[in-house]
Amino acid sequence: MSDRYEQGMKVRRSVLGDAHVDRAEAQKTPFDVPFQDMITEGAWGTVWASDGISKRERSMITLALLAATGNFEEIPMHIRATARTGASKQDVLEAFQHVAIYAGVPRANHALKLAKATYAEMENDA
Questions:
Q1: Quick check: 35 and 28 in contact, CB under 8 A?
Q2: Interval 25-62: pLDDT, tens
Q3: Residue limits of the Carboxymuconolactone decarboxylase-like domain (predicted)?
Q4: Are 81 and 15 in contact (CB under 8 A)?
Q5: 21 contacts 9 by C-beta, under 8 angstroms
Q6: First to last CA, the chain
Q7: Could you write out the DSSP letters of every residue in 44-113?
């Protein structure tokens, strides 16, 4: 594997946790390996590995972008990641308030619903 892939896997594990990454890796098939490699190198080995902004800020931006674009499926995963990135519940609320103003209340409302459910699950798991 490339250095960028190795860095991406390291960052991915630090943000999402070993259990999540191990489950995702176990679900890979020959069909999606090229895609998984691309996101590991691109998203995790390039964007998330950059030291240009903090992991906290990246979490806030990622959650806002997911909500603004209606890509709700990954919001719970990135809410769980806030436990490792340092983004607080208040940070997430602020990000989703920006979404409400700039991308629409329904998207922000749905994102908040997902965040609340995910935080409740996290508290129950603790």
A1: no
A2: 999 999 999 999 999 999 999 999 999 999 999 999 99
A3: 35-117
A4: yes
A5: yes
A6: 35
A7: IIIITT-SSS-HHHHHHHHHHHHHHTT-GGGHHHHHHHHHHH---HHHHHHHHHHHHHHT-HHHHHHHHH
